From TrEMBL:
Residues 228-300 form the Histidine biosynthesis HisG C-terminal domain. This is ATP phosphoribosyltransferase. Residues 59-210 form the ATP phosphoribosyltransferase catalytic domain. It catalyses: 1-(5-phospho-beta-D-ribosyl)-ATP + diphosphate = 5-phospho-alpha-D-ribose 1-diphosphate + ATP. One of its GO terms (molecular function) is ATP phosphoribosyltransferase activity. Its main location: cytoplasm. GO terms for biological process: L-histidine biosynthetic process. InterPro entries: ATP-PRT_HisG_long (IPR020621), ATP_PRibTrfase_cat (IPR013820), ATP_PRibTrfase_CS (IPR018198), ATP_PRibTrfase_HisG (IPR001348), HisG_C (IPR013115), N-reg_PII-like_a/b (IPR011322), N-reg_PII/ATP_PRibTrfase_C (IPR015867). Belongs to the ATP phosphoribosyltransferase family. It comes from Pterulicium gracile. GO terms for cellular component: cytoplasm. Pathway: Amino-acid biosynthesis; L-histidine biosynthesis; L-histidine from 5-phospho-alpha-D-ribose 1-diphosphate: step 1/9. PROSITE patterns: ATP_P_PHORIBOSYLTR.
Length: 303
């Protein structure tokens, strides 16, 4: 059994207990070497190697727990922070590069509604009633729609994409990642309300200032793991006379490391390069005279 004073002196880190962000959060915890054992039916796990307790909560509740200072750090979606209106009470310390999707206005592909102006004043179903209301209030104001002419927003807890086919709505506001759900429901997007990804958040008014060193440690470990997953190291040899052309191609995050090597007028360069650019960077390096170009995988780093 977990007693309340077992948590004394521990940083509380909230993680979504299920859903789209859960698996990636576990990968991040492993990358940051935050070790724990999750007991069946218990939503609090004590870390076995750091003064941290993990609290597994619904993603939608995490901004409020962090904002009110009940937990010190949390991982959730940027969209969820805005939907729970906690943006003034939480700080987004890090973008985590996963859970990327867009909150979009969608309508039946073969229906009469072609634009957001056509949809204004009609029925919209969503799980994001705060963000959808803000979006359509602004649109209604712009179009001069008032009183019972205004767009009607109705909340549903899930399976939003079924609302048009069931006759509940003329349009929906829902998250789109691959677009598969939207297409399968015969819908298409006519506007984007916002783009979102998972973020690491802390309270703007922390309740436990003494935990600041552990907060910094967790931030730094997670930032290092994220950077390692987004970057790779490119190492090459280049005649000194071509060095500036080469370092323009590989400027690094801060600056490239340049070391002298055996042999007249050659240097070795090592630089962090975004993974997505690595093939093009290697091609360009070869064109400016680089030789022995190597790509080295990064497991982890501190940046
Ligand atoms: N298709 C998706 N692709 C990427 N990220 C997503 C996707 N759907 C949701 N997310 C992100 O994950 C967050 C939580 O979404 P999810 O639907 O898993 O919520 P949940 O309420 O925790 O789980 P569920 O409703 O499925 O039981 C969203 O607010 C969003 O930031
Ligand atoms: O563009 P896609 O890659 O198809 O992803 C979008 C779907 O993912 C989310 O729902 P989820 O599957 O998490 O379930 P839910 O409907 O219960 O929220 C979202 O609400 C969409 O339905």
């Amino acid at each position: 059994m977990l007693l309340p004073d077992t948590l004394d002196g521990r940083l509380l880190l909230a993680i979504p207990k299920k859903g789209r962000l859960y698996d990636k959060c576990l990968t991040i915890l492993a990358g940051a070497d935050i070790q724990f054992r999750r007991h069946h039916r218990l939503d609090v796990s004590l870390s076995t190697n750091l003064p941290i307790a993990l609290v597994f909560l619904p993603a939608a509740d995490i901004p409020s727990f962090v904002g009110k200072g009940n937990v010190d750090l949390g991982i959730t979606g940027h969209d969820v922070i805005l939907e729970s209106q906690m943006q003034d009470l939480v700080t987004e310390n890090l973008r985590l590069g996963f859970g990327k999707c867009a909150l979009q206005v969608q309508v039946p592909e073969n229906g009469p509604i072609k634009s957001i102006e056509d949809l204004a004043g009609k029925r919209v179903v969503t799980s994001f009633e705060v963000l959808a209301a803000k979006y359509f209030n602004e649109l209604d104001d712009k179009l001069g729609l008032q009183g019972d002419k205004k767009t009607q927003i109705e909340y549903v807890g899930g399976s939003v994409e079924a609302a048009c086919a069931l006759g509940l709505a003329d349009g929906i506001v829902d998250l789109v990642e691959s677009g598969e759900t939207m297409r399968a429901a015969g819908l298409h997007a006519i506007d984007t309300v916002l783009k979102t990804e998972a973020v690491l958040i802390s309270s703007t008014t922390p309740k436990h200032p003494d935990l600041e060193p552990v907060i910094k440690l967790v931030n730094s470990r997670i930032a290092g793991f994220i950077a390692a997953s987004e970057y790779t190291i490119v190492q090459y040899n280049i005649p000194r006379a071509r060095l500036s052309a080469a370092t323009e191609i590989t400027p690094g995050r801060r600056a490239p490391t340049i070391s002298p090597i055996e042999g007249e007028g050659w240097v070795a360069v090592s630089s962090m390069v975004p993974k997505k650019d690595v093939a093009t960077v290697m091609d360009k390096l070869v064109t400016v005279g680089a030789e022995d170009v190597l790509v080295i995988k990064l497991d982890n780093c501190r940046v």
